[in-house]
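Justification of resources, computational component.

The compute hours requested in this renewal are based largely on the per-chain cost of generating structure records like the one below. Each record pairs the submitted sequence with a full structure-token output. That output is archived, and it is also reused by downstream analysis tasks.
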Amino acid sequence: MSRIVSIGPAVEDIYLIDRDDLSEVNWNGQSIFSGLSFGATVDIDKVEYHVGGGGVNAAVAFARFGHETIFMGNLARDIGGEAILRCFDEENIDSSYAEIVAGITATRVLLIDAKTGERTELKFEGVAKTAKNLNAKDLDDIEPDWIYLGSLGGDMHKVLEIVERAQKVDARLMWNPGAAELKHAKKVIGLLNDVDALLVNKAEAAQLVPGVILTELLARLSNYCKTVIITDGIMGAIATDHIETYRLGVYEQSRIKDVNGTGDAFGAGFLAKYADEENFAEVLKYASANAVKVAQKFGAQGGIMNGSEKLHQMPMVKIANLSEWSTS
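The structure output for this chain reads:
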């Protein structure tokens, strides 16, 4: 097993789940919740409290797969921060490098239509908004085998510090940049030569390189980074490690309860296997299965696997010559 550091946001998630009052209607060309109006009191069927955020979700996956896992990110000394620290204790995650800072732990309220799984998210970034206080030199003490880097709120200077420190401590790096980082597309591209694995979705990939279909997006991104994974929701994903390339569907068709955390589950499921597994196709199968299992439950962690599951076959096609799709 490997020593993996997960760097990214930690969030308290509050779910408000209802079958009637949050149903979708079309108004003026937009989809809205039909049962909500200003000044009204709405009875919600169910409330659930979970912890999440890309840094936490990935850390839980690594720990369940048996890796020595360390979390780096910001928490506040409040109810949300305490819940996240309890999660770390329960999952055997080292939280000694978590930063307890003044402010409020990041919080999301998710309004879920229980009939369709559609959601609206209300987000307060709190102490996860900044990463300036995170100390990349801590990686010298940790000496990780892998670093999983999530969103740092667009702080490209801090991203650069971590990328450079990863090289110094001879750690491999998987990067799942957030929307704030992708606004700096040229800087992201400039760092990819020093990144071992990149995870983005289709829309994010199109922010970095030209292209319309998954194969050409993958081909162009693979010019900058050895291992690239591009997800595409219910359409599956595509991935290459410069040796093999696969186009895969979803692991299994099932009723989706909650898509919160499925991207994290795919990326973390991938690295949790990839860190110690040589079979690229098997790694991708675990990534896809992990995302599907997470989508079957409310909360970003309830469905996370542990790596010992026996998986069935899934739609997966090997692409023979990826370079044919690249014109860059």
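The two ends are 38 Å apart (CA to CA). The first helix runs from residue 54 to 64.
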